């Protein structure tokens, strides 16, 4: 925790320019995109599975190594690093990746066959739904005839109405209307926690 | 009274069948509707529409025969046969093609659920009851019989998911208006999604986009700023990109960015077009 706080302090002062540790000639570059360094090439062979991507269910976890069995039958070994971002309803910490979770991972395939993860999205779902009913902090949704229970998590769930910036107020979501929901699935249930709901208001 | 209730069944079944045939015979979307049902799998995609229309024709014929005098035993027997056929078709549909629409009644698309089976079962029971009638529904039934049949009609409506939008959804909307179940979500806190929305539209983000290697790794608030950090690489060295985003205002031009070397903590990149805060 102290580490996190120290790090945040360092980063805060770096971005607000309150430190004098700025180095290097390129450091004072312009905002133009071309000044940015070209990213490492990540493009896969045409027709072949993207080597830098993995998806599936977590079958085992040993420290920073997680084993994932893909829905296409492939098996992945994914290594979490200090630089891995983890999303599970919200940006969270590495220890939140649990056995049984579904995930998408993007990273770099190492020579030993493991995927060094740069980003992991745990249990993320993106659903086009019909709002069939609304209860106390819960949305009852219909997704192609399947009933889905969407839990509203106060403080985290957000709503985007008509493409405007997100707000925390979900009370303008209407029964009987269509919506799109980004959420975190609760493994092996028909329930999700709502991260963002896109609706018309 | 039971005889009168039995006599009224022809009216109920007849009306239901005529309504049901309407969606199978009328309108430009019949073909599309047919291809969403399990008929597509049962008789093939090409023959789905003719088969769908044929079912509609049979429904209309039997429905009209039940509604119009004279009273024939054949009519209710045909209705029984049709109900048994529906139950068989629904079972096939549920097993062979669970994602398809039932194509049952009216023009709405509705999946096969327990309510669909309930309605087909109720239809069969009504048809069996109708076969015991010895007078026509037009023979002035009593008030009690009409009350029983009204309850039956309400049951049919309750079991028809095609009709939900006319009574169930308005009721649920009314409940939401009265109880405000999501009112507690309104807060002054700015969701992270708002910050990210603003960040993705900023020049600062575009400037370093190709250096970013991860999704949001950490975020924290300080005063009017919200800080968001990403894993990055700079000159092939591991680094962290940190953005300062105005927390309560939408000002993408004011977003600042710095890239900090992970090993020695030095700021290696910070666009100078932005004023440096003292």
Give the termini separation of chain A. 41 Å
Summarize model confidence as the mean pLDDT of chain A.
Answer: 84
Count of DSSP helices of chain B? 10
What is the radius of gyration of chain B? Answer: 32 Å
CATH architecture verdict of the largest domain in chain A = Beta Barrel
What is the CATH topology of the largest domain in chain A?
OB fold (Dihydrolipoamide Acetyltransferase, E2P)
Mean pLDDT of chain B: 84
Helicity of chain B, in percent?
40-55%
State the order of secondary-structure elements of chain B, H for helix, E for strand: HHHHHHHHHHEEEEE
The CATH superfamily of the largest domain in chain A is known as: Nucleic acid-binding proteins
Query: What are the segments of chain B in which pLDDT stays under 50 over at least 5 consecutive residues?
Result: none
Count of all domains of chain B: 2
Major beta sheet summary of chain B: 5 strands, antiparallel
Cα separation of the termini of chain B: 92 Å
CATH class of the largest domain in chain A: Mainly Beta
- Over the alpha carbons, how many angstroms does the gyration radius of chain A reach? 20 Å
- Please name the two chains that share the biggest interface, counting residues whose Cβ lies under 8 Å from a Cβ on the partner chain: A-B, 68 and 74 residues
Principal-axis shape of chain B: elongated
Beta-strand percentage range of chain B: 5-15%
Oligomeric state of the chains in view: heterodimer
Q: What report would you give on this structure?
A:
The complex is a heterodimer of chains A (201) and B (278). With 201 residues, chain A is mostly beta strands. Chain A contains one helix and 13 strands; from the N terminus they run αβββββββββββββ. Chain A has two domains: 53-122, Beta Barrel (OB fold (Dihydrolipoamide Acetyltransferase, E2P)), CATH 2.40.50.320; 124-199, Nucleic acid-binding proteins (OB fold (Dihydrolipoamide Acetyltransferase, E2P), Beta Barrel), CATH 2.40.50.140. Chain A has one helix at 2-16, and strands spanning 53-62, 65-69, 75-79, 85-88, 90-92, 102-109, 115-122, 124-135, 138-143, 146-152, 158-161, 178-185, 191-199. Chain A has a five-stranded mixed beta barrel with strand order 1-2-3-7-6. In chain A, a hairpin with a 2-residue loop joins strand 8 (124-135) and strand 9 (138-143). The model of chain A is unreliable at 20-41 (pLDDT under 50). By secondary structure, chain B is of the alpha+beta class. A five-stranded antiparallel beta sheet of chain B has the order 1-2-3-4-5. In chain B, 41% of the residues are buried. The radius of gyration of chain B is 32 Å and the shape is elongated. The chains are: A mainly beta (201), B alpha+beta (278). At the A-B interface, helix 1, strand 7 and strand 8 of A face helix 8, helix 9, helix 10, strand 1 and strand 2 of B.
């Amino acid at each position: 925790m102290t580490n996190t706080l120290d790090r945040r302090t360092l980063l805060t002062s770096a971005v607000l320019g309150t430190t004098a540790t700025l180095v290097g000639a390129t450091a004072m570059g312009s905002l133009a995109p071309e000044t940015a360094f070209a990213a490492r090439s990540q493009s896969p062979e045409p027709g072949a599975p993207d080597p830098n991507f993995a998806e599936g269910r977590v079958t085992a976890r040993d420290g920073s190594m997680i084993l994932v069995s893909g829905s296409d039958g492939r098996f992945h070994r994914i290594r979490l690093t200090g630089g891995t971002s983890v999303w599970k309803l919200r940006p969270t910490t590495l220890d939140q990746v649990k056995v049984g979770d579904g995930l998408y991972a993007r990273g770099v395939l190492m020579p030993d066959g493991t995927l060094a993860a740069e980003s992991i999205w745990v249990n993320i779902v993106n659903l086009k739904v019909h709002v069939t009913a609304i209860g106390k902090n819960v949305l009852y949704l219909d997704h192609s005839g399947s009933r889905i229970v969407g839990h509203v998590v106060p403080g985290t769930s957000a709503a985007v109405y008509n493409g405007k910036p997100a707000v925390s107020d979900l009370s303008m979501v209407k029964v009987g209307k269509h919506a799109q929901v980004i959420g975190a699935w609760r493994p092996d249930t028909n329930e999700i926690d709502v991260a963002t709901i896109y609706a018309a208001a | 009274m039971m005889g009168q209730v039995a006599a009224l069944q022809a009216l109920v079944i007849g009306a239901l069948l005529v309504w049901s045939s309407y969606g199978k015979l009328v309108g430009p979307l019949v073909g599309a509707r047919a291809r969403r049902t399990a008929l597509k799998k049962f008789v093939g995609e090409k023959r789905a529409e003719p088969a769908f229309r044929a079912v509609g024709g049979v429904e209309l014929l039997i429905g009209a025969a039940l509604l119009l005098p004279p009273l024939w035993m054949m009519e209710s027997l045909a209705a029984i046969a049709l109900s048994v056929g529906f139950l068989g078709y629904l079972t096939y549909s549920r097993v062979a093609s669970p994602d398809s629409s039932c194509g049952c009644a009216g023009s709405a698309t509705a999946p096969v659920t327990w309510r669909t089976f309930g309605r087909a079962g109720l239809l069969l029971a009504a048809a069996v009851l109708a076969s015991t009638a010895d007078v026509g529904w037009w023979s002035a039934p009593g008030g009690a019989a009409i009350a029983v049949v009204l309850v039956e009609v309400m049951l049919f409506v309750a079991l028809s998911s095609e009709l939900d939008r006319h009574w169930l959804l308005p009721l649920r909307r009314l409940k939401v208006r009265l109880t405000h179940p999501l009112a507690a979500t309104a807060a002054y806190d700015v969701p992270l999604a708002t910050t990210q929305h603003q960040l993705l539209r900023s020049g600062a983000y575009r400037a370093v986009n190709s250096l970013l290697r991860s999704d949001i790794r950490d975020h924290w608030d300080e005063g009017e700023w919200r800080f968001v950090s990403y894993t990055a690489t700079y000159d092939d060295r591991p680094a962290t990109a940190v953005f300062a985003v105005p927390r309560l205002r939408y000002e993408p031009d004011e977003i600042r960015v710095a890239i900090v070397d992970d090993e020695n903590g030095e700021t290696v990149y910070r666009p100078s077009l932005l004023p440096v805060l003292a």
